[in-house]
Amino acid sequence: MANNEESRGLKSLLDWFANRRKSGTISLEPQEREIADGLWHKCSKCGVLTYTKDLKANQMVCVECGHHNRVDSDERIRQLIDQNTWRPMDEHLRPTDPLQFRDRKPYSDRLREMQEKIGLIDAVKTGLGQINGLPVALGVMDFRFMGGSMGSVVGEKLTRMIEQATQGRYPVIIVCTSGGARMQEGMLSLMQMAKISAALQRHRDAKLLYIPILTHPTTGGVTASFAMLGDIILAEPKATIGFAGRRVIEQTIREKLPEDFQTAEDLLKHGFVDDIVPRTQLKNTLAQLIALHQPIPTAPHMVLWESMSLSSTAAE
Length: 316
Prior knowledge:
By secondary structure, the chain is α/β, with parallel strands linked by helices. It has two domains: 39-69, no CATH class; 71-295, 2-enoyl-CoA Hydratase, Chain A, domain 1 (Alpha-Beta Complex), CATH 3.90.226.10. 42% of the residues lie in helices and 14% in strands. The protein has helices at 2-23, 52-57, 73-80, 107-118, 152-168, 186-205, 220-223, 246-253, 264-269, 279-292, 300-315, and strands spanning 40-42, 49-51, 87-89, 124-131, 134-141, 172-178, 210-218, 234-235, 275-276. Strand 1 (40-42) and strand 2 (49-51) form a beta hairpin.
């Protein structure tokens, strides 16, 4: 009697598993773990899960493979500028639609949607601050706002920042990330290339330092102008840097390009970039470069020696 009950129980259990298998409830496929929103970050390169707080503490650089995740302008300013020293400039400047441009939707609507979604007025933030106690003028482009495209406001804000830096004799640093000129503003966008370049030339004539930092991606008219006009050009690892896109070049020359084409490493090899600096070392590297290019203070004995030399020359 007991054996019959056990056999019936075993049969019913097997039937239950069979029905579950038919219904697809039981799966032998490995299940992906659900990731709580904002708590963990999965690296797009190596797939390693990192606690978001730890990733931010490492400046959004993957601790496993070193992949540099894209950061916004606010985070970049926090990473580079000493606490409580940031003074933003020209926050009131707003883009307009002088050409009344329209593709699938009016340009004015695109601007309004971007401003409401991201909380930025345009694709760059500028201001004055300190890096390890050294004063600098800093411009930071933000790829979230229409691909970091360079419109009239971007050009005007960068030009004003450079001119104020020249007047105050501050070094200039621009963190570049952009898809290029903003097509919705046509020729007005292209004019910004010349305007910013002219301001940088006046800055150079004053014997002042300018360092562009090329991050992923830096392309188009930004690369063709102020991104490549630095006294020292720095780049982040694996950043895409170029003018025309890879696909356009391959279609034009009808050849397959190398895998590392338009990477920071390839540009360093060919002399277009002076150094590749990991983000975690960037602030200290900038501070060292700025300190090395500070004016040499004139010691009292040097002034005395110069006056004595002039006196002896006059006597002769």
